[in-house]
User: What shape does this take?
Amino acid sequence: MAAPASDAPVQKAPAPAIVPAIKDAAIAALITLGLAAPIMGLVTVQSLGKVQLEPHWMRVVLAVAVVFVGRLVLNLTLWAPRAGKSAPLITPEVEAQLKAVTRYAAPVALAIAVLLPFVPGVERTTVDLATLVLIYVMLGWGLNIVVGLAGLLDLGYVAFYAVGAYSYALLSTQFGVSFWLCLPLAGILAALWGVMLGFPVLRLRGDYLAIVTLAFGEIIRIVLLNWQSVTGGPNGIPNIPKPTFFGIDFTPGPGGFADTFGLTPSGVHRVIFMYYLILALALFTNYVVLRLRRLPIGRAWEALREDEIACRSLGVNTVNTKLTAFALGAMFAGFAGSFFATRQSLVSPESFTFIESALILAIVVLGGMGSQFGVALAALLMIGGFELFREFEDYRMMVFGVVMVLIMVWRPRGIVSSRSPSVFLKERKAISGSLVQEGHG
Amino acid sequence: MTTPPVDAPKLPEDVLIRVERLTMRFGGLVAVDDVSFDVRPGDVTALIGPNGAGKTTVFNCITGFYKPTVGRIALRKSATESWLLERLRDHQISRRAGVARTFQNIRLFGGMTVLENLLVAQHAPLMQASGMTVLGLLGTGGYRRAETHAIEKAKAWLERVDLIDRADDPAADLPYGDQRRLEIARAMCTEPVVLCLDEPAAGLNPRESADLADLLRSIRTDDGVAVLLIEHDMSVVMEISDHVVVLDYGKKIADGTPKAVRDDPKVIAAYLGVEDEEVEAVEREIEETGA
Ligand SMILES: Nc1ncnc2c1ncn2[C@@H]1O[C@H](COP(=O)(O)OP(=O)(O)OP(=O)(O)O)[C@@H](O)[C@H]1O
Ligand SMILES: [Mg+2]
Assistant: This one.
């Protein structure tokens, strides 16, 4: 974003160069003019059954002026080339402090998560929101395998989430299979789809891979939408059964959860149970991913992200390595999907749009690709923040966008950008994010 | 996948790799033109030639990154068996045939530590020990032992290339010369029978070049690994190679001992970049003075 400013010649004198600053602002203003003239300047109005163009040039002038002045001011102040190199916003010392904080942050966050439903003052809605956040934490951790570790850009991750959700919905409503049996089945089915998509697609790299996975996500959604007889089309599948607590239902009355444990019947029990269920699933995901990272397969994923050609020269089967990343990532999405289905009691295609994939990807990128804690934090910020600012209505989209841009400007490698080595000889030194590749396909 | 790719001609005992009539075309460009040569076990074979002569292309064919347009590359496995390398997939050439390589523009896993780089090189045996991940995930099986063993091997190589103090640093942080040595150590961790090095001395200072020559000699004699070497630094080539193959514009123009090649007028002409007629003139001159 700040590139134009740093391109300006760096002068010895600390005084900002005024001429390049004006030039840069003028170019930005010109671009704004080009964009704003047709978009803001001409408005179509219906009059007497005809569509007419109504000019609004004042708006255009205003927009151009704002961009010019704003850019000029920024060029002369914030983006001004400093004497020598501009100091990075996050210096190594700050980085080290952050690192120290994150060491304690993860256990503290875990403790809070475990105790949350029993903290005084925490209401049912909060637990519900926390459940939602945890779904995204889990999805983020699953996608982190594919994007963060293996460096494969997957824009259709929601497809596997959908496969998991519909697997549970169909198996439970059609065949009466219990949640606990469906959960692994949904994961396996999603993983199978991951492999099926993976085979033809993994020859592609970078942008091509992104486009094909995006298309795959859409295909799944459109199939769900149109295969009326099986998926119920746009209405989806209703009345999906809830999971039981080791065979005990959450129903009031004899034999129910409250009755068995001598509690006063309350709807909160199920909410809390669902919260712990997703917490356990998310922690399981985290545990598996952390272990995988320390196994040869995890190292091969990261090596693949760093340099695929070198991997091939060392006898790493890159096709299998990519496929396992895809399949395992998909499996966790499948687990999360079946949890989602049972929580909502209803699945329909509109829950699995591209926006969902984009959101999960944003969580991974924002959190810091490859970092488990960063991803959890990003999910909390994005999903929690999103819900918190509900009262802003449409503006929250804008706020959300601005926040994302700000984070990317300050921490382009995500909130937790450093990489922790999987093995060490004497001491485990964090590796600066700037050395770590982002993968290329 | 498990059937060994045999059906190559039997190779005599003193040939490890036989490159036969290798031709590689890129569209209209003939990068390698009908080149044949042998790599003998226990030898350092140097492949030299001016820029763009096709040396790296020959390497890419041997290590499976390119499929040759014409020709074959046979590797001797035993007295009765030899494999055609061009029939193998690239990762199998390293894992099963035992041909390891380095790259002209170093390709390390920069964001991983030096130690991790050497562990990725041992991926195949470690993967097996982890029971294709399943046993490793459960924490059973001999995975722990295998990993300790792999780390020991990595440590031994780090000692040899003098990088043991940098084991926990990211590879991208190493100076250039260290990166070159690390790449060689990484290739050696795959336990190859032949090590292909693409300009390992490029960018090294004279001291580092001398150390490199020592390392390569030790790899040949102590580890018994044949070395196939592309190098521009003639002092390194002359010092350590047993056998030199010279390419120019994709064609082999000389093949023999370092001394014979050095005195070959065709080679001198290729390096000085003179026209063909002049080469003939030089040849005639030499013949006349010799007579
Ligand atoms: N993938 C490719 N596609 C098209 N042309 C190629 C390709 N690889 C190599 N070439 C061409 O083949 C010729 C030989 O290249 P090669 O890299 O093998 O030379 P080299 O002997 O290694 O040279 P150098 O000493 O500069 O490394 C060059 O003209 C090069 O441009
Ligand atoms: Mg080359």
Notes: The mean pLDDT of chain B is 84. Chain B has twelve helices and ten strands.
